[in-house]
Amino acid sequence: MAARSLRRGHPLSRAVGVSVPAGAPPATSQVLPTIRKPAGGGKRDQLGSLLFLAPAAIWLLAITIYPVIATFRNSLYDENAASYVGLSNYKAIFSTASILVNFRNNVIWVVIFPFVVTFLGLVFAVLTERIRWSTAFKTIIFMPIVFSATASALIWRTIFDLDPHIGMVNAAVQTVSDWVNPPGLYPVNVSAGQTAAALASTGLSPGPSGSLQSSSTAAAGDTVQLGLIGISATTLQVVGAQTAIVPTPSSGAISGLVYRDFSPSNPTVRGQVFPDEVGLPGLRLTLLRGDGTSVTSTATDQHGDFRFDNVGSGSFRVQIDAKNFGSGFTGIFWLGSQSVTPTSHLSQTAQALLSVPLVDLAMIVAYLWMWAGFAMVVIGAGLTSLNRELLEAGRVDGATEGQIFRRITMPLLSPVLVVVLVTMIINVLKIFDIILNMAPGSSQGDASTLALAMFNDGFTGGIHSGLSSALAVILFLLVIPAMISNLRRIRG
Amino acid sequence: MKPKFLPMAVMGGLLLAACGTSGTTSSSSSAQGGSVTLWAEWSSGEQNAFQGALQPFQTQTGTTVNYASKGSNIDTVLEAAVSGGAPPDVALIPDPGTLQTLAKQGSIKELTSIVGSLSSNYGSAWNTLASYNGKLYGVWFKGANKNTIWYNPAEFAAASISKPPTTWEELIQDAATLKAAGVTPFSLCTDVGWPVADFWQNIYLKTAGADKYNALSAHTVKWTDSTVTTAFTTMAQLVGTPSNLAGGLQGSLSNAYPACVDKVFPKAGAQPQAAMVFEGDFVSLEITGNSKNYTPGTTGAGGAACTTDPSKTPCYNFFDFPAPSANSANKSAIQGAGDVAVMLKDTPQSEALIKYLAGPDGAAIWAHLGGFASPNNKVPASAYPDPVGKGIAQALVGASSFVFSLDDLQGTWEKNMWQDLLNFVKDSSSSSISAIQAKMDQEATAGLGH
Amino acid sequence: MSAVQTAVAPAARGTQRRPFRFRPSRAVLDIVLAVVAIFWLVPTIGLTIISLRPERLFQQSGWWTALTAPAQLTLQNYSTLFSQGLVPGGVLDSLTTSIAITVPATLLVAIISSLAAYSLVFGRWRGRDVVFLAVVALLVVPLQVALIPVVQMFKVFGSLSGFNPYGTLLGVVIFHVAFGLPFGIFLMRNFLSGIPTELMEAGRIDGAGQWTLFQRVVMPLSLPAAMSLAIFQFIWVWNDLLIALVFLGGNPHHPLTIFLYDQTRTLAANYWVISTGAMISILIPLIVFFSLQRYFVQGVLAGAVK
């Protein structure tokens, strides 16, 4: 073989089919006299190849290996890395409530994210096998991986914004919600702490299910005056409110006025219908008997007046229906630290450990968007390298698609799935910038993880060594199982 | 939106001529050339204004000022740079605690001989805050009056409130009146917690007084003290009722600065969602940035009535943070902040810059642009463009007692303090308050070392 | 085959031969995946549109309203940002800083990894495998573990030599290279071990020394792998925030990631800057991605454990 190579042109290009770049040196045999070198390479060769390793070795020893050891050492020293403090940094970590919160968040991420992302990747990989435009699809799903976590965090922060005018998710929910449950003419924002009961000013008491009822009963021939406060000028404009007119009594009927109990010339006086006060039109009212059953309904006119004719005997109440105050959808605070799990009645420590802040889930969604493509590509490659004959054999034997998937495909795929899982677990243990940029200030404390805590402790407010080194050590210990699994895989 | 600025040199010169002081800084008359690196926290609009203020210095001395904006983290960034060996020549820092730390380390230079008689440009409270061991280490350039609650006069008028409240009780009463008129009283800024801290600190100052305030800041009064509890329960009167706040509790927790200001002073095309917002005097920059129609004071442009429509005649004004009527002695105590210039490298250029910053010229330029107040008593009232600006500056220069922002003096546990106060907003019940107080005291001990 | 039979047989026993029952029709699949694809694209499209809308519209109406009213779109935000010029801390300066950090880091990692991988594959020295295992172990080490000691090291170096890399772009590059090398060496080593040894033998017999072998034989062949590595490393460094935040504490010039991060921290932060800056920061990686997609995917498949 060697002899032949000397005679037939450049050996490399034939061997691998790669064209030799122009300007490549002529075959060495024409330049140097033929010297038979021992196949194993001499000492000079060994030295040469070791030299090649030198830059990497020096770099890694200096900037990676030595610092890791130094961090271990620093974790046993104080904030200025000067005096030995033993395990007190670690003790401080495990006794601070905020660090427990960090641990909990790491657990939430590790338990949820790697498995969901692997599952998504698997589903996408399997489904895209059967469509014609799979390259385009894969490109679209894969693309977010090139965005920085910072940019992605900012994108998704907008998407999850509380205000339905800004946040897509809340806008979508609002569209559906307002279609199912349209807002009333006088919306009361319950999520902002407003209540219909707070609107009651004169002659009204809170009724069932967010309605308002007249405090005292009325009979035929009475007039009722019901005053509401907390109605904004914008609402008045929208409903076209006009000056309140106190109606005259009418025999056999219960008439009345619903008015805005706020007079610009007497802003603190309630209960009196001033000339500059307005009536509230468009309010749906129900006449209730003494036992609470309804008789009939009506609505207030332009001046806030209403009348129930021919009510008969007995005493009645007028109810302002809850529907008038329906707020419609006002926004879910997706980036808030309220817990998805019901933990408000638990102790502080239990809460710290068992709450699942909603913002964590929102951030996981954003991170899934970034990394599902990675899982899909890796699993997809695993799928294409599967031996199809095994699958065919299964089909021939009469197994259903589901059985083939479960009993043949999955076991064959499991190494790939494990790789993806482990990679994603390590990835998630280190996340930092997505939390820093996506969680609003009020949620940062509840959403923070070990890596973020390490940065905050170590690098904000000067450089503090002890506590943050201890956190870094813990982070390192957490990735050791992954390290061992990788090593085993490479070895075996 | 960002206003369009003339080229810096032209603007700086024009402004100095138009509203500058007579007798410009001749202390640095020799054209020195060279350059000086300067760090401060300002970016965007404030940066433009600051660089305009520096322009006369650059033209007069021929020294180039290499300005770098470091954001609100400048204290930690500066300390890191000092420990890493790469500090700037001059830095403007918002935290006198950092000044103390750096002076103790010997990382900044003493300024007594450099500044000389210019130190009389500042009241004694200001000079004390810029000193370490009795020696002067900094000169104040910008002061912030955090004693201001901004309100939309049109919204107040809609609720027939003819004049803003002068006591805390009146404030609570006005909130109820506003609600009756269908106006949400307050837009609470939360962000990472510093606006809530500023608010709480004002309440503590007004209820407990300046001496207790300073003692709490130094942690000689504990956070479990009853005065602290009083401050919390007083604040809860406002923030404990979600219907007082724009967006309720949820809305407040996602209400970062400057969006919280936009809720009271919106941009064109939007309606106000609340009547009052609290933060320092820099709020006016955000307001005027939202729409050019915003007029300072209680009447719109040309004396017209104020409207809520930003495209017509919207107005903005402030009232002093009110004290409970039982604590009226603390009425004119002011909490504030400021940026103090320190010198890290002693060069002729940095000395000249320090002297310039201690004089009134640079401050007058920025004052003219608005959103700026200087504790320098040589800056004339005419430098301020409107009654709002004048009022703020006068309060600063002439406060009966002046305290610095407490959270900025807490060092490493400042961030924890902010988080604790945010937790207070989330739950302002009395059990929550006592738990938070205990936690804060622990953190103060750990963070301050005593 | 017997393994397959045992796996499948217990279930198949007792059931008759059935035609395949559940196989979603192509049309359904197309629709489902199309919906997924649209969902996946929406955030990016949303960001683009936000950056093309005037700022005051941001709080008034959602970006999706622009889909039906395209007249409101404008390049104003971009022109305002660009007109700032190369002011330190501005978007253009951040862009150049990002490039200044990423390009050297990428080149250095590519070159040094190739050299090291060559040594690990073709070198005949004892301990080769141990070193490679060490590299594999380093793959998962979180960079947080090295941050503080390296900062301290830089300071010590600075006091000894007068030049402190902390606070300089060089310091950032140094750290990035260190944490790019394990993956780089891993990738290149895997690729190089696929090169037939006959080629190396042939070259050696022809009298080539190590350097010649490396330069003339190995490097041209490994160009695809080096490309994959370079692209992956490029995007990794371009998108980094933590290392830049820690090491550029003292520098008026910072990369785009810090520019974006700062926007959420300054008093005057507004979404027109954030969205426009985010678009600019996304643009370069997107170009790299689309033009060199194949190499990128290869890099990922080589076991991207970053």
Descriptive report:
The complex is a heterotrimer of chains A (about 500), B (about 450) and C (about 300). Chain A is built from 18 helices and nine strands. Chain A has helices spanning about 1-5, 10-15, 30, 45-75, 90-95, 95-130, 135-140, 150-160, 170-180, 235-240, 350-355, 360-385, 390-395, 400-430, 435-440, 440-445, 450-460, 465-490, and strands at about 200, 205, 210-215, 225-230, 255-260, 285-290, 295-300, 305-310, 315-320. In chain A, a hairpin with a 4-residue loop joins strand 6 and strand 7. Chain A is elongated, with a radius of gyration of 37 Å. Chain A starts with a helix and ends with a helix. In chain B, helix 2 packs antiparallel against helix 16 and helix 9 (about 195-210) packs across helix 18. In chain B, the strands form three sheets. In chain B, strands 1, 2, 3, 6, 12 and 13 form a six-stranded mixed beta sheet that branches. Chain B has helices spanning about 10-20, 45-60, 75-85, 95-105, 110-115, 125-130, 155-160, 170-180, 195-210, 210-215, 225-240, 250-255, 260, 285-290, 350-360, 360-370, 385-395, 415-425, 430-450; strands at about 35-40, 65-70, 90-95, 130, 135, 140-145, 150, 185, 275-280, 295, 315-320, 335-345, 400-405. With about 450 residues, chain B is an alpha/beta fold. Residues about 1-5 and about 20-30 of chain B have low confidence and may be disordered. Chain B is globular and about 65 Å long. By secondary structure, chain C is an all-alpha fold. In chain C, helix 5 (about 90-120) packs antiparallel against helix 11 and helix 8 (about 170-190) runs antiparallel to helix 11. Chains in contact: A-B, A-C, B-C. At the A-B interface, helix 10 and helix 16 of A face helix 3, helix 8, helix 12 and helix 18 of B.
Would you spell out the secondary-structure blueprint of this structure?
The complex is a heterotrimer of chains A (492), B (450) and C (306).
Chain A: H1 2-7, H2 11-16, H3 28-31, H4 43-74, H5 88-95, H6 97-128, H7 134-142, H8 149-159, H9 168-180, E1 200-202, E2 204-206, E3 212-214, E4 223-228, H10 233-239, E5 254-260, E6 284-289, E7 294-299, E8 305-308, E9 316-320, H11 348-354, H12 358-384, H13 388-396, H14 401-429, H15 433-438, H16 441-447, H17 450-459, H18 466-491
Parallel strand pairs in A: 4-5
Antiparallel strand pairs in A: 1-4, 2-3, 3-9, 5-8, 6-7, 6-9
Helix pairs in contact in A: 4-18, 5-18, 6-11, 6-12, 6-14, 7-12, 8-12, 12-14, 13-14, 14-18, 17-18
Chain B: H1 8-19, E1 35-40, H2 44-61, E2 64-69, H3 74-84, E3 90-93, H4 96-105, H5 112-115, H6 124-129, E4 131-132, E5 135-136, E6 139-145, E7 148-151, H7 153-158, H8 168-180, E8 186-187, H9 194-208, H10 210-217, H11 226-239, H12 248-253, H13 259-262, E9 276-278, H14 283-290, E10 295-296, E11 315-320, E12 333-343, H15 348-358, H16 360-369, H17 387-397, E13 401-404, H18 414-426, H19 430-448
Parallel strand pairs in B: 1-2, 1-3, 8-9, 10-11, 12-13
Antiparallel strand pairs in B: 3-12, 4-5, 6-12, 7-9, 7-11
Helix pairs in contact in B: 1-2, 1-16, 2-16, 9-10, 9-11, 9-18, 11-19, 18-19
Chain C: H1 2-12, H2 26-51, H3 55-60, H4 76-83, H5 91-122, H6 128-138, H7 144-161, H8 169-192, H9 197-205, H10 210-221, H11 223-238, H12 242-247, H13 256-263, H14 271-291, H15 293-301
Helix pairs in contact in C: 2-14, 5-8, 5-11, 5-13, 6-8, 8-11, 11-15, 13-14
